[in-house]
Amino acid sequence: MTRLMRSLEVLRSKGDRALICYLMAGDPTPARAAEIVVAVAEAGADVIELGIPFSDPLADGPSIQAAGQRALNAGTTVPVCLDIVRQVRRTADTPIVLMTYLNPILSYGLQRFAADAADAGADGAILVDLTPDEAEEWQEAAAAAGLGTVFLLAPTSTPERIRLVGRLCTGFVYCVARTGVTGARVDLPPDLPELLARVRAETDRPVGVGFGISTPEQVRTVAELADGVIVGSALVNVVAEAGDSPDAASAAAELVRSLKAGTRRA
Amino acid sequence: MPDALMPDARGHFGAFGGRYVPETLVPALDELLATYLACREDAAFLARLADIQRDYVGRPTPLYHARRLGDKVGCDVYLKREDLCHTGAHKINNALGQALVAKRMGKPRVIAETGAGQHGVATATACALLDLRCDVYMGEEDIRRQALNVHRMHLLGARVLPVTSGTRTLKDATNEAMRDWVANVRDTHYIVGSVVGPHPFPMIVRDFQSIIGREARAQFSEAMGRLPSVVTACVGGGSNAMGMFHAFVPDAGVRLVGVEAAGRGVETGEHCATLSVGRPGVLHGSRSYLLQDGDGQVLPSHSISAGLDYPGVGPEHSHMKETGRAEYVSVTDDEALVGFQMLSRTEGIIPALESSHAIANLAALAPTVPSGGSVLLCLSGRGDKDMETAVSALGLGNALNGGQR
Ligand SMILES: Cc1ncc(COP(=O)(O)O)c(C=O)c1O
Fold this sequence. Notes:
By secondary structure, chain A is an alpha/beta fold. In chain A, 50% of the residues lie in helices and 14% in strands.
């Protein structure tokens, strides 16, 4: 995942943090989604996490559930998502990490997906319900295709599991900030510094933190602890409010600009 | 409890099972596995469980020779009367076992998903008995069609949380229960209601349900001096079937037949005949047969019986289908309603609509039973909860008064 690693390295050397922006591919429509991704990249997102919709997203809260449903209703499939990546690649070089659940990828074929995703210009993939314990075949497929693999860490992860995940992630470690599903929250979890300290003690990988981070203030706070700050539901909500209109891209870009301020060195 | 040959240490039944969950849950599943394995070896735990099974659940449940039913369908039939368990279905066997494990883990709160409401009622009952807080997720559609069980859960002190996403049935209730568990995993145990979910659930639920088959096998061979030719049960997630089948797996001469719900007919797409027409995939934490479209999206299911209305199935069933140790067939809503009435009229036993699927398949099974052979059927539950559904489907009401003997 060289493009991803390079981009994280460049940020690190400047003392900046990465702003990692989650968007649902195909929401509100595949064509609109490609516009939104490009706008978000141009507005300063350092990494794009592009969700591939799944009918039963059991780690997601209401915002991303609804976004996935809108995308499915608009006919979004794995090939459609890869097409969006290809379209974005015509104008933007921002690293893209695909994020979804295992079943759509199993159905598409692990090897075929890894090869096609890399070919479309994706840099990595996260399968939310695939932990390192069951990931052997997936990792082989991804490695063969040159696609990065990112796994999740959680507040409940033991030191052994933090080491395991750190070893198997190519790029960054995705640290889930709280026990719970995705979705904007009013407060950051109070034990976040302690969680990051536990993670740092076991791995020297760059750490991205997500789940429940939505405002520029929250981004600023988390940026002091982590290498990357992941914002999902807040962006997805802005897209939802705009509906199927050109405003979606500009509204998302505006939010990204305000969030990005929080990850630059003060 | 039986010595489990399967699954392997990581929860695989051949190519099926395993553990496909968000990272947050992995430590909780490890803790559950360790605690459960300790319980399984602990004489005090096993003694407590045996006491509760005898004095509270009412085990052993009877094995009943259903002669008039047998005459009607054309083969010798024995019913394992799980409908006579406390709370009216086999679900209590698992709920009590897991509630005891939750107690041992020191988790004060329990959650569950429910379709027909039987697992919800069983869990609420176990939580009342063992003084645990209890929240049950139930789809809005099921709350409507199983209203009686909602009242029972309330009375037992549980909260019933309506689920409005997706098809508003068991699949979506399971999604919500999983989301709750991810958020509250430190103080909450999730009592999964069937032989589904991530390892170790399919093994734990099977073990707690396997008392059905152990009792039935002993009762049958004592009464008859031989084993049945066929053992059969309905399959939703597959817990009553697996509980019934497990003791017979080594008996190569005994056919195991699971009966799925064909809903309005498998050709209509409105069914939940997962093993009959699905293909392998991953849902709710394990790899198993699954009803899904060509893009790997899970399909909505349909059955007249809420307890079978689920697009997945337990991984050990997938393995037994693959190895050929068990066969799986399906019957439609209409056929199940015929079975429902037939058992009521011939034996004076009103079965659950779920169990009615297994009854309905007897007629098809009968010609394949060797002469002198018998069918052993798991009567998984009683039909009180289904009165409204059945009355509206059959157009009974007063019109039926007096019957059609
Ligand atoms: C009476 C009865 N039988 C069968 C089932 C189906 O579940 P399983 O296949 O796990 O036995 C249910 C589920 O609610 C039930 O209530």
